[in-house]
Amino acid sequence: xxxxxxxxxxxxxxxxxxxxxxxxxxxxxxxxxxxxxxxxxxxxxxxxxxxxxxxxxxxxxxxxxxxxxxxxxxxxxxxxxxxxxxxxxxxxxxxxxxxxxxxxxxxxxxxxxxxxxxxxxxxxxxxxxxxxxxxxxxxxxxxxxxxxxxxxxxxxxxxxxxxxxxxxxxxxxxxxxxxxxxxxxxxxxxxxxxxxxxxxxxxxxxxxxxxxxxxxxxxxxxxxxxxxxxxxxxxxxxxxxxxxxxxxxxxxxxxxxxxxxxxxxxxxxxxxxxxxxxxxxxxxxxxxxxxxxxxxxxxxxxxxxxxxxxxxxxxxxxxxxxxxxxxxxxxxxxxxxxxxxxxxx
Amino acid sequence: xxxxxxxxxxxxxxxxxxxxxxxxxxxxxxxxxxxxxxxxxxxxxxxxxxxxxxxxxxxxxxxxxxxxxxxxxxxxxxxxxxxxxxxxxxxxxxxxxxxxxxxxxxxxx
Lengths: 345, 109
Known about the structure:
Largest interface: A-B, 13 and 12 residues
Low-confidence stretches of chain B: none
Helix content of chain A: 10-25%
Number of domains of chain A: 2
Shape of chain B: globular
Number of strands of chain A: 18
Number of helices of chain B: 0
CATH superfamily of the largest domain in chain A: Naphthalene 1,2-dioxygenase Alpha Subunit, Chain A, domain 1
Largest sheet of chain B: 4 strands, antiparallel
Helix content of chain B: under 10%
Strand order of the largest sheet of chain B: 2-3-4-8
Number of strands of chain B: 10
Radius of gyration of chain B: 13 Å
Order of helices and strands of chain B: EEEEEEEEEE
Shape of chain A: elongated
Structural class of chain B: mainly beta
Distance between the termini of chain A: 14 Å
Largest sheet of chain A: 7 strands, antiparallel
Structural class of chain A: alpha+beta
CATH superfamily of chain B: Rieske [2Fe-2S] iron-sulphur domain
CATH class of the largest domain in chain A: Alpha Beta
CATH class of chain B: Mainly Beta
Oligomer: heterodimer
CATH architecture of chain B: 3-layer Sandwich
Number of helices of chain A: 6
Low-confidence stretches of chain A: none
Distance between the termini of chain B: 9 Å
């Protein structure tokens, strides 16, 4: 199940250049490149002539030239050259996708282009804010995208999957959890009071004693998860609203489906302590990277089990409240998109 | 004595200020779990907190008017009476008499 009328991260800005980049998004083959003046372009990665992927070709004067017979396509998608042929029928073109560049990512709109308003791109300002340091990655995950949404909305797994980095027993057993929801949004608020800091927090925070740790998980449909996490020394008023005096981080996730069973997992870790110290940025990134690679192992194993027996049942536990609300929002949006028949064929 | 081993009668369960409109406040009374709610009209109510479908705490769910929706599978329970309106759950939860005194919430078990 995909939702089309949304922005998705297609690539890190650094991935898109004058060399074509092939990337499957929502099961559609897309080619991305950059014109000479730096504008990103996204096209259907399929020559309408004999269906060779255009990404095999090269960029010539801002046009994408097919590697096979040299047809050239302008950034708007129109075919502007067919070698050995004087006239080009107006119908020869490839689909293009609205793109926008923001927060160090190239975003793409996979649905009805008339609705592609860049103001709908969710706020990831910590990626570019001078008061924050941020570093991220893209993982290719052989699992359905919704398994990753589930994962980030139920952080009790940190106690079991990530005990060497961002997890400890307290995160599963001692959390005060609250779930609120809106039409396209779920907020899970978790407070873990007066507990030892997990290994990562001990490394980057130098806490002398127990901490009050918070995890505010903002899910915005279809697959944006922005986590405000941090800790302050116990007794300094964190739960009452004073989040200063410890560490604060943003864990930023943009989950882009590749196919029904594979996903481009874009993520970054941002920190507001010592924001210009590359060693701190690297340390925060490496810690989370270690944890997220542990998650990928789980996602891919889940996917294999699910694929083996797709009709097997699942049960729900208390900590699923946030994830269940998210799934319900996604199902409702999918029904609405299907009813409008605005999904491209 | 009730089946949970509690003395039958009025029991102080929390400060009045803990119970605000729009969300449940869950407490444990022996083995029993009770959810306390304040409706928009200021009235106070207490109903069994464990969904009769699967284990979930209704006080973690979503209050809408005088109903609470289970956080897992969306079964609806009447906050005034404990009556279940489904889906998936079909058995009511108990309702407990409540009163407030000296800034405290009391329920009758």
